[in-house]
Every structure is written in C-alpha cells, then in structure tokens.
Amino acid sequence: MVAFWKRSAGRADAVSAGGLEQELAAGARVALLDVREPEEHAEWRIPGSLLIPLGDLGARLGELDPQRETVVYCRSGRRSALACAWLRRAGFQRVRNLTGGILAWRGEVERGA
Questions:
Q1: Cβ atoms within 10 A of the Cβ of 12, count?
Q2: What per-residue string of b and e applies to 31-44 under the rule 16 or more CB within 10 Å gives b?
C-alpha cells in the first residue's frame, strides 16, 4: 500500500484512483470521506463513503477516527486538499487526498479508463 502514497512539499499525502481501487480490492480498511455538497454526493459517490461537506467539517470532527487511515475526496481534488490540510492541523496524521477527486475515480475506476 505504501507504493501508492505520494508526498509533495506543503501538500497532504495523495493517492491515485487506481491506487485506491487496488487498496480497497486488497481489503484495506480505509475510511472514505466525501467533502462535497449533499446534491453532489447523491449524484455520484464512492461506495461506503461518509459525506461531511467541507463547510461542516469542523463541527463534525467527532464522526471521524483520527487513528484510522482516511482518504478524502471531492469533485476534482481542491476541496479535499483543503480538508486534508485542516484535518492534519486538527491532529489527524493518516489522511490522504484522492488525486483528481471523483472525476478521476469515475474515469479510471467506474469507466475502466
């Protein structure tokens, strides 16, 4: 699983859609956090993900386990990168951003691109 981690200066760790798919298929116990809005989540989501819109994240931190590995996603990766940074400041150390967000997941995993 470590092979799918990437780190760049000043950014949270990241995982590609294909890398996440492989981890999940191998049975990884990863929490999936969707920080989009409810209407976006209703339209398309990664199965098993928890919806906490970015604007609600601070008030709903208690719903997350700071010890559990968590992959955060949004539409394209921008909001989730902000959420990852916020979570790290709040003490969450095992947080990764899904590179390209749900768009990458749909393109690489759902559509088999």
A1: 21
A2: bbbbbbbeebbeee
- The answer to whether the CB of 73 falls within 8 A of the CB of 34 is yes
- Residues acting as catalytic residues: 74
Q: pLDDT digit string (tens) for 21-61?
A: 999 999 999 999 999 999 999 999 999 999 999 999 999 99
Q: Which of 2-11, 40-49, 62-71, 75-84 has the lowest mean pLDDT?
A: 2-11
Distant-in-sequence, close-in-space partners of 76: CB < 8 Å, separation ≥ 6: 100, 101, 103
Residue 62 to residue 76: CA distance in whole angstroms: 25
pLDDT at 2 over 50: no
Q: Which residue has the tokens 């609600």?
A: 56
Q: Which domains does the chain have, with CATH numbers?
A: 13-110 (3.40.250.10)
- Rounded distance between C-alpha atoms, residue 82 and residue 54, angstroms: 8
Give the number of other Cβ atoms within 10 Å of residue 63's Cβ: 12
- Of 112, 3, 105, residue with least CA distance to 47: 105
